[in-house]
Design goal:
With 483 residues, the chain is α+β, with helices and mostly antiparallel strands. Helix content is 44%, strand content 13%. Among the domains are: 176 residues, no CATH class; 84 residues, no CATH class. It is globular and about 70 Å long. It binds adenosine monophosphate and magnesium ion. The site of adenosine monophosphate (AMP) has 16 residues, from loops.
Length: 483
Amino acid sequence: MKLDHSFAEELTALASEVKPIKLKNSRLEVFNHDLATELDLPSEWQNETHLFSALYAQDGALNRCSVAQKYGGHQFGHWNPELGDGRGLLLAETIDLQRQRWDLHLKGAGPTPYSRFADGRAVLRSTIREYLASEALHSLGIPTSRALCLISSDDPIYREKQERAAKMIRVCQSHLRFGHFEYFYHSKQPEKLQSLFDYCFKYHFSDCAEAESPYLAMLEKIVHDTAKLIAKWQAFGFNHGVMNTDNMSIHGITFDYGPYAFLDDFEPTFICNHSDPQGRYSFDSQPGIGLWNLNALAQTFTPHLEIEQIKQALNSYEPTLLKEYSTLMHNKLGLLPQPAFVEANSKIINTWLDLLAFEKKDYSVTFRQLCKFDILGGNQKLRDQFINRDRFDEWAEHYTLALKEQGMNQTQRQTKMRQHNPHIVLRNYLAQQIIDRAEEGNFEMFHQFIDALKKPYEEIEKYQKFSAPPPDWGKQLEISCSS
Ligand code: AMP
Ligand code: MG
């Protein structure tokens, strides 16, 4: 295995050399063996002594060329040129057996030139939340950064209360954000913007580099991947919470986890981020914000593309997102996406969502219950949960007719639906219980949950406890950006 440093060496204007600091009584608490194997990483890294030596020894494999990245970003709609890795470091890049390049990035690494007034640390709570979320989204097939390991410590740090510092190593294709491009564009550094594009064509968009119009191909790919990603968030009920352009990956992956949430009760206007009272990043705003962010990125392509070409790329966003969303929702409801049925099916899907929203039904549990819907007998247990039975019955009648007309074998349909409606979902109340125990030094529930996430569509007896909707206290959790 060879470690590479293409970003640090070739994009020097965006990289500041910084070494990670060691925290008091650091412990390698969690190591993701499956991911390490997938990436062909050195097996000795799962050993704390070896990993810490790579991270902290002089000229260690993971600190030899570690850098903090400079970027900017539109935060809540406002341009901020002052951003960068304030507490994260790109340690190295690794190339797996399929020749895919992966960044190894340490979150909670210590202060950097971009820390501004903050401490460069991450709390245990936020590293656990990121670890859980990235594994949860990955298990559902939603593109995301991954978590390689979690390191706890006894270093006290202060947020709303005293907490303990921790670190995690994040893995993804690259940490290139929309905000990297915007930074050079808005600070009027066209040569540097050009070197960033050249770097992308060399390492990450080599297919586009060979296209007739490489810049158009690259923008179209980012638009396409972002649209598909956000369609998946909407179908699985995931609210990211801080879709600033510095948190948007050019690889169309879920990235930079903060106050995210999977929906409990289905409220389309749900806001998971306590610091976003206006709801700019509410659940149902995500598709529109995705396009807003792509517009901000597209502006940086203007030296290379005509306005008509940019419009062409951006115009593909909505149809791509809607098509992907429609496919996912057809799967969730066991409907066939044949063109002849799509219009009627869309109506059934939308009315079902209206029904869930009107009665604030638990998004995941209700979909899972729908998997038992019987074209002869309906689903009494499901029906009983709706206060407005007439409304439910009216919908169920249309749904039954559609299912009969589309003629899929009932058992097959139910089995297929169970493969698209997860039984185990990372809810905030579960994350909170896992965190509460971990803060006392007990990671057992963490490990159990990670194991349960390996098969989120299966009803495994010992993990039934993770499938329950939240208790009342668990619905009111306030998650802020302070992490
Ligand atoms: P985020 O909301 O996590 O996307 O962070 C926004 C910006 O604040 C980024 O530039 C981060 O690097 C920086 N930041 C967040 N937390 C800290 C911290 N504890 N210390 C230094 N910088 C931070
Ligand atoms: Mg960020």
